[in-house]
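Subject line: Sequence and fold of a protein, written as structure tokens
Area: Proteins and the way their chains fold up in space.
Start of record: The labelled sequence and token lines come straight after this line.
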Amino acid sequence: MAQIEMGKKNKRGLKIDGWLNIDKETAIGSTDVVRIVKRIFNAQKVGHAGTLDPMASGILPIALGEATKTIPYIQNSKKIYEFTVKFGEATNTDDANGDIIDRCEVNIQEDDIKAVLTKFIGKIKQVPPQFSAIRIEGKRAYDIARAGDIADIKAREVEVFSLEYKKDSFNGQQADFTLCCGKGTYVRAIARDMAKKLGTVGHVTYLRRTAVGVFTEKNAIKLANLEKILQDATPDELILPVVTALDDIPALPLTIDEAQRLRNGQAICFFSKTDIVRLEKLGLIINANKAVSVKAMFNDELLAIAEIQKATLKPIRVFNR
């Protein structure tokens, strides 16, 4: 369960630990969502896992308290987007919020679109948009762009697991797509580069994120409805456990002595035959050359994110309870 200590108050607010699966509306930024959630729950610490542009809607996982320690694990999760590309017009932001900077004829067919998709699947090189949060010599690229300058943004490798054209969505000017990708992938850059491969220019006119790892539309909460929902539900009913973010990491139950050592930041050695059998039953094979991440549990409570290597369990992130 999520942990909410309603009695523990200080000037910084309540100690609340867990995740909120927020469905963000358009015209609001990710940091604005964090600010609103922090105010509504009077929470001490709030963060988000994966920026969504103001133009985009969809899933924005919000971490509270100890859950902020697991943000990197959600940021590394697969993400799914639905988006629309308008061909024939380029904007300085690569989306509909920007100014048109180029126009080009559109002379493409559905088969052309389908054929070009394979060039954007797998590990690809991508130059992020000028209007992005990439840091260039300590400055955000969007700040450089707003000042009228061009940021020197280097290409970086990203991974695209699938890119699908939605059947019959092309009307001669725009088309709809579904994308499944890894960390750091810019949908706006995919649209921009796809248009170039098709001999034209283009930009994103619609963008929605439908999933971030285990966080999907199924149990998402509309930000606009959050305060109203809290009139009939307790915060504990809405906030998901911290461990939710670690769905892909195997669990390692600990004994009471092991739990105490881990809480104190101490390593645990698994040298006995009994220990080895116990780990193997959990599907955890000790590897001398590669560390294996686990979520260390005691009485179904998450104590730490830890790594096993060379028969030694070392805490990486210990959670305060």
Observations:
- The longest strand covers residues 13-24.
